[in-house]
Design a protein that fits this description.
Chains A, B, C, D: InterPro entries: Aquaporin-like (IPR023271), MIP (IPR000425), MIP/Aquaporin (IPR050363), MIP_CS (IPR022357). The structure is a homotetramer of 331-residue chains. With 331 residues, chain A is mainly alpha-helical. Helices cover 66% and strands 0% of the residues of chain A. The first copy, chain A, contains 13 helices and no strands. In chain A, α5 runs parallel beside α11. Chain A is globular. The N terminus and C terminus of chain A are likely disordered.
């Protein structure tokens, strides 16, 4: 929680220190003075757009955060693959995805920066995130991922043409296949069981560590959380990224897969690896649920179904009101 | 804003903790005592130089910050190119530019550490940075970049001679071309549209994320901002750095290009890639404006034209007084 | 100590700021409200499991922390070895182990995140960690390491089969040996003395720096400690990792060695390098004790046997009561 | 200064939070209770060793800090050179030296963690560091560097024998030269002027950025300073490390050079590159002085000769008393 406390403390202080603000990188405090007039009037009748944005904050936040994730993530794979490792190597890919998550979280912070339906699900089940928000988050993440992948395609289109050998050639397999830029495909030696297990364990580690990083009763990463997420994704890529490409996220994998299908990579995007595509759709949910279950069962002492009579099933009987602390927090 | 609050809190505290200062790395607190006498006198009649420096603080700050950026940035490219990848690889270049921005911001913090005319423009448009400062920042950044590039040339001159095969040979293309040390040149397969789009999207991401990092109503990076900028530049280089070399900054690209022209790399520094040179001059401005527009429209709730009646056009009618919070903050 | 102070401050503040919580990544504060009812009842009769977990906190914490360490650590070696350096290189291994320790500490923070029996011993000798806890920590670390190694084996089983050339082939030496995935084996040119010294010096540096990072009278890393541990392990791997593979931890080396023996790597896991296996079991203890001795003798001014009459031997005469601050701190 | 304030705040708080300490990684607070008895008695008659250590704190601190720097720094070069790049590459060397400085500063924090005579000189000239301490710092740094280099030699002796082809062979030049492990040698194409300039500019950047990082009136790195130093040294190595090996430190270069001479690398350690050895002894002082001069002249507004009548020459006339804030701060 320290992250939030920081920002709050800060706002409190700004009033007193505006005129000595040293941090040139953020002018908002200083500007407060200037727009005061406009704001006064605004308090009475807020702008229509501001009202709508407040209403749609979660959607915009997750959409843009996940878009940033895919811009860096698919972007780095494109650069490494298309330049034949001249402009990066496997390690660069770990950097790219780690950085994508780090900044996706900074961008999407107002909605929690989940960027991943499985993380959202785990927050609904274990952290009281309102269920009614799940569909909104899910759609925002999926569409954001598709947008990011489409932009990467637009940016690297001429490079893909050069690499594939023609603007009408798009291949999933072969020496100059480029489908791997957008979504994950399993290594050739993998068994079905191996694919399932690899995605499951990676997702379990992901959620297990995320809950540790955000546990104020443990060490907790506080303001370092986004930076730690860089290391977490980097680590999963370096340690469990080979066999299935560590999708660990339906939005990140299925969204771009759809995009690549629309682009014209053909039916193989679905059939490759014995219709592997469903594994990174399903397993992240199971893995993240299991990771959350492990953390709450053995370490977490805060409020959680694990620490509540009847595993907190009461909530299902008396669902929370719309006006949850989150809506407030996003005002 | 926490960065600024930190420093302010700190100064407040120092008075009480001088004699227990543990951080040997910064002796200023301790020295306060010592120079007290001199200072007393100074309060009455400040030194002429101090007065001038206060007046020219923005210029010095941006000049030196951008110089540091180029020292690391052009320096790493020189080392990698001239040593034929023996003393670094493509990833080292991402490190070098990221580190250059990180320390450029630490050095140029008093003026906001923009280091980039496009970032300054976006701050003028969206964060109320005084327009009258734009020309000062622009010149300081351009001259700082030229100085940095010139120093790098001086440092690597003998290595360039050895690599090019003679002290009078300076080539933009060919097996031993070294012009790429100073400014960016597009990859061979790129179309004009591709170049424009690549610079545009990179600059958009740059400004979009910078506004997220400095948004106190979002997570915000606070004191971690310079470190986050390292990751941001590293990421842009790893994910979008291949096609046009991610100039995303007029000062960083045009300044050193001028220097390389003066050095004697010839007319090709302008003509290469179908007179590509204007793209990294123009697109960063458009990209950063669009990135700022996106962030303020969909996420930013603080004072911004997007959140103000008539998009804050009032300001154009009643421009701010000279004595803006920034001048104060730089005292 | 600042890490702890953070979390404490934070909890203090939460009560007042729940409804303005900005950090979407941690919902616990918000949930407090919700589960209030259930909690009230809980105060009277805590759940049986919560009571047991409180009792076994140290064990769970060290077990899971060390498991995470091995998941990343053995995982990265597996990926690099089995992919023939296609999916990583030696540097990736430094990344993997560093990240493993970093997140192992975040996960195991409630018990101090030792993850290493030698570090636990040094804390008992120099920092008053209760001796009665040593066996618990030791077993938890050993079993956690074995579990982590077993999971990695499960995850990479098919890849190992493909690499070794058959599901019944497991080799310690040879062109396709994979035993190095699980535990360390010395370089061929090493003498017995060299092995002993290499493990000793690495462990000395480990404990010496850890005590510096956690010394509140020195600079101290505070909340940055887990991140610093990433750099420390990375550095030991990059600087002293070649000769013996920097085990510097009985749990990390002996645990997985047992697992690999059970898997069927045969007697060579013990006999290789002239029965080298005992060196990473014994030397880390001696090295960490010496590192702690050096730090406390020459730098540490806090409470330590070095700074106490009779080197604090009193404690041996009057051992502390069960109810030490730690048990409290883990409530 | 925030680093120091942190630690101070912290100590203040500990008293109140001992029994809720969450940060298991630092037990000192908890132990306070335990040793209270012993301490009481100690207040009356402190231990002889504690008294001596307090007196020699600066020496121990700089000695051990510089030793750590060389352990990582020379260690990584040894591993990369002797393993023929199998266990690291040029980038690993940047990592190793960066990490060495980072932890050298954490270890040597009580004396300011200069680790470099040139940095100490700059602090004497520009930050009122007592001149009388310069010789102590100088000797401590030199001896610490020699010790670190000697330990690295001991650790890698068998590897050096294997690489050189015999235990009595130690070469500075040739295919299997290993002298480069200990100190720096210039690249073959370098002119005398080039060597001088390369060391000068690197040292200038070093001190210029250090003063920026520790300037509480600029952004300032506060508790992030040691981490930033990692990036600074990494950057100097990646951008200016090729031509002369970025010694930028008399202790780091001359100390190990002496050691390698004692080991038996012969007269060539002095004569190589036209008796290059004096350049990394002299230029760092000039470079750091110039870097400090630049920062204080154009940016620093705190107490500095640049900001003082007669450039603070008064001090030379009335030198400070022995009992300076530092001696106090190190009590």
């Amino acid at each position: 929680m320290s992250a939030s406390d920081d920002t709050i403390e800060v706002r409190a202080k700004n009033t007193s220190v505006d005129h000595e603000s040293k941090d040139g990188m953020n002018d908002s405090a200083a500007v407060n003075a200037e727009y005061a007039g406009d704001y006064a009037s605004e308090d009475e009748q807020p702008l229509a757009w501001s009202r709508f944005r407040e209403y749609a904050q979660d959607f915009f936040s997750e959409f843009l955060g996940t878009m940033i994730l895919l811009l860096f993530g698919d972007g780095v794979v494109a650069q490494v693959v298309l330049s034949d490792d001249a402009k990066g190597d496997y390690q660069s890919i770990s950097w790219g995805w780690g950085i994508g998550v780090m900044f996706g979280v900074y961008v999407g912070g107002k909605s929690g920066g989940h960027l991943n339906p499985a993380v959202t699900l785990a927050n609904c089940v274990f952290r009281g995130h309102p269920w009614k928000k799940f569909p909104v988050y899910f759609m925002a993440q999926l569409l954001g991922a598709m947008t990011g992948a489409a932009i990467v395609y637009g940016n690297y289109r001429s490079a893909i043409d050069a690499y594939e050998g023609g603007s009408n050639i798009r291949t999933v397999t072969g020496d100059h296949a480029t489908a791997g830029i957008f979504c994950t495909y399993p290594a050739s030696f993998m068994t079905r069981t191996g694919m399932v297990f690899s995605e499951f364990i990676s997702s379990t580690i992901l959620q297990f560590v995320i809950f540790a990083l955000t546990d104020a009763n443990n060490i907790g990463a506080g303001p370092l959380t986004p930076l730690c997420l860089f290391f977490l994704i980097f680590g999963i890529g370096a340690c469990f990224g080979w066999e299935t490409g560590y999708a660990i996220n339906l939005a990140r994998d299925f969204g771009p897969r759809l995009v690549s299908y629309m682009i014209g990579y053909g039916h193989e995007v679905w059939s490759f690896g014995g219709y592997y595509f469903w594994i990174p759709m399903v397993m992240p949910f199971l893995g993240c649920l299991f990771g959350g279950f492990l953390y709450d069962t053995f370490i977490y002492t805060g409020p959680s179904p694990m620490n509540t009579p009847w595993l907190g099933l009461k909530r299902l009987v008396h669902p929370r009101k719309t006006r949850s602390p989150w809506t407030v927090s996003n005002v």
